[in-house]
Amino acid sequence: MLQNEMLPESSCSVERSFEVLGGAWTFLVLREALFDGVVQFDGFQSNLGIARESLKRVLRRLVRHGVLEQRSLNPEGLRKGYFLTNQGRGLLPALVAALNWGEDWASDGSTPERLIHKECGHKLKNAIVCSHCHQPVDPRDVSFESRIKRRSKGREKFAKMRYVEQALLERQRPCSIARAMATIGDPWSFLIIRECFYGIRRFDAFQHRLSIASNILTARLKRLVSAEVLRTAPVPDYPHRSEYRLTEKGLALYAVPLAIIAWGDKWLAGSKGPPLLLTHKSCGHQFSVELRCRSCEMAVTLDDIAYQASA
Ligand SMILES: [Zn+2]
Ligand SMILES: [Zn+2]
Fold first, then answer.
1. Residue 49 near residue 72 (C-beta atoms within 8 A)
2. Which ligand is located closest to the Cα atom of residue 298?
3. Average pLDDT of 14-23?
4. Cα of 183 from ligand 1 centre, angstroms
């Protein structure tokens, strides 16, 4: 578990990054943009089989937060497309992490797609590493230090955001990212899992830190337990009470929130600088998340990756 010297109160850019990304469809829209180079509304719509209104909402949110930008598709400027900004391309590690987790923990035995490092031809796997020492980051080996002490407000809007069933997410094609998102892909679940990585275990602590209604928290925790991401355990010295702990399956998720936190720190922090400092305890340095091929040790960018969907 992540040990923090000082437990961070929810801090702004980190919060915002989960708000921008929270939602299963958002990840699938990003999958289309990053791996398939989709830029047109109709392309997203037909590839995903998503309702037009839902797609409009996702695209609007991604444009508002600088992940996508609208540009003309032709010189006359009549048709506009949605193009990834550099900030949007920076989400690659989060997508790779979600895909890898879906492959390892939410598979039905098939491998719906592969990410190949073009340079060496190997599959991209466990590629989230510490930017300083280039070693894979173990969730038990990171400490957080918060530089901002305040809680954010206004989460009521999350209450309306619901789970999207896996069958719907995979309507057009099977995908490990969709499988991961069917398990964790709503904003509240994301935030609960993030809190678990901060070391939070008890119902009232989740409730206090997230300002979440108790019925919603109860439902989300129940779902995460049935998905075997969390398990309940008796509280030491209070045998009638139970707390929530990450299972191995849950711990394996670490790279997803870590990549999102690192992205938020880099792109949404503004002039105040990152609200969270991540320290890789085994090398002792502050780090951000980096993508690196484990086979050839080279840093990997979007242009170095081939996305191969199984037929
Ligand atoms: Zn390191
Ligand atoms: Zn390689």
1. no
2. 2
3. 74
4. 29
Ligand nearest to the CA of 306: 2
Q: How far is the CA of 293 from the centre of ligand 1 (A)?
A: 16
Domains of the chain, first to last: 12-309 (1.10.10.10)
**Predicted TM-score (pTM) above 0.85:** yes
Rounded to whole angstroms, how far apart are CA atoms 111 and 149?
Answer: 43
Show Cβ contacts of residue 305 under 8 Å, excluding neighbours closer than 6 positions. Answer: 35, 92, 115, 116, 117, 118, 124
235-263 per-position pLDDT tens digit: 888 888 899 999 999 999 888 888 888 88
Using the mean position of ligand 1's atoms as its centre, give its distance from the Cα of residue 122 in Å: 23
Please state, in angstroms and rounded to a whole number, the distance separating the CA atoms of residues 93 and 100: 10
The ligand placed nearest to the CA atom of residue 282 is: 1
Question: Phi/psi at 237 (nearest 5 deg)?
Answer: 75, -5
Check whether 82 has a pLDDT greater than 90. yes
For the CA of 127, the nearest ligand:
2
Ligand 1 centroid–CA 282 distance in Å is 6
- Residue 132, CA distances (Å) to 95, 278, 291, 301 in order: 21, 11, 12, 17
Distance CA 278, CA 275 (A): 10
Tell me the ligand closest to 292's alpha carbon.
2
CA–CA distance, 282 with 138 (Å, rounded to integer): 9
Helices 255-267 and 92-105, axial angle in degrees (round to 10): 170
Which of 2, 10, 299 lies closest to 152 in space, CA to CA?
Answer: 10
End-to-end Cα spacing for the chain:
39
Q: What is the DSSP letter of 153?
A: -
User: How confident is the model over 20-62, as pLDDT tens digits?
Assistant: 886 889 999 999 999 999 999 999 999 999 999 999 999 999 9
